Every structure is written in structure tokens, then in C-alpha cells.
Amino acid sequence: MNETPEQTLDAVGPRLKQLRLRRDVTLTQLAAETRISASTLSRLEAGLRRPTLEQLLPLARYYGVTIDSLVDAPRTADPRLDLRPMSCPDGSVIIPLSRRPGGVQAYKFVRPTGSDDLVPDPRTHEGHDWVYVLNGTLRLVLGDQDLRLKAGEAAEFDTRTPHWFGATSAGPVEYLCLVGRQGERAHLRAVVPTAD
């Protein structure tokens, strides 16, 4: 079924609202970040106004998504070329960042505010992970450790160790994750000592 451009733009509002709620951001906070008035943002989310390119650009930048994903443009046949975000049932968004088949794959994860009482369900698989927290606090259960990684902190581990990722009640978390083959580790070319 082919949608008209008007129908496509009319469907943007619910996606904008869903993205904002996942980030746990108010209209006022979003207005300050995007320089689009809160009333305009409200009308866009409610479908009372169709978005313009000038409005979609700052919103896509703020949410870290493509304009294609905001307007739900058709996907290409090859997922290595179409790096659009994927939404998960728990409200998380996974954004593929690399196109290198067979090698290390890079992803950005955005997880909504979590519950500190949540009992994790750690999993294992073949491979090696590297995680770097961009914003917020990442709860990483790794074997018998229950870690809280803050922005700027990283972890590296063999994925045969039971592991689980989540956000805390402090708010949403954004982090980068590199997933490599079993036995593949990060190769540090230089380590610069910090000045005291």
C-alpha cells in the first residue's frame, strides 16, 4: 500500500511522542534543546500540525535517529546499508553504527529509565563485548558482579560470561557497544598516562 506524502507526515506525530517519552524528556526541555517552541512540539506530536524539514532536522539530531526513521521511509533490501534504529518491546532503541559484515559490529543503545528492583536475566553467547557509557548510568550485571557504569566509563568482557544491560531509576542511559567474534579483543595502540 502506497501512502501519500500527507499520510506519511501525519504519522510522524506518534513517533515523535514515543521518542520523547522514551527519553523521559518534557516538551519544555525538548523545546530548549531543539529551539522549537513547546506549543509547536505539542501540536506536532498530537498530529495537529505536519512537520517541516526545518523541524525534523533538529528533532532527528536530538534523538540520534535519521529523518528516514522519523517519517518511516521504506527500508532498503540490505540491512548493512540501512542503519535505521530498531525499537524493542521494552522501549529501548538500538542504532546500528557499522556496515562491516563479519567483523566488529558497533551499536548505540538508548534504554529508558529502569527499575532498581528489576531482577535481571543474564544471557551468554559467543563473542567479546566492549561497552562505553555516553550519558546516564548503565547497570551491567556481569557474572556475580552488579556494576553501575557512569558516563565516560567502559567495560570489556567475554560474552560467555553471563551478562545483562539495563538503566537505573536515575534515568535513561545511552551507551556504545562493540560486539566482536570470540577471542577478538580491543587492540590498544597507545596508552597515554594521565597527569597528576
UniProtKB/TrEMBL annotation:
The keyword DNA-binding applies. Keywords: DNA-binding. Residues 16-70 form the HTH cro/C1-type domain. SUPFAM superfamilies: lambda repressor-like DNA-binding domains, RmlC-like cupins. InterPro entries: Cro/C1-type_HTH, Cupin_2, Lambda_DNA-bd_dom_sf, RmlC-like_jellyroll, RmlC_Cupin_sf, TransReg_Diox_bact_type. Pfam families: Cupin_2, HTH_31. CDD domains: cupin_XRE_C, HTH_XRE. This is Helix-turn-helix domain-containing protein.
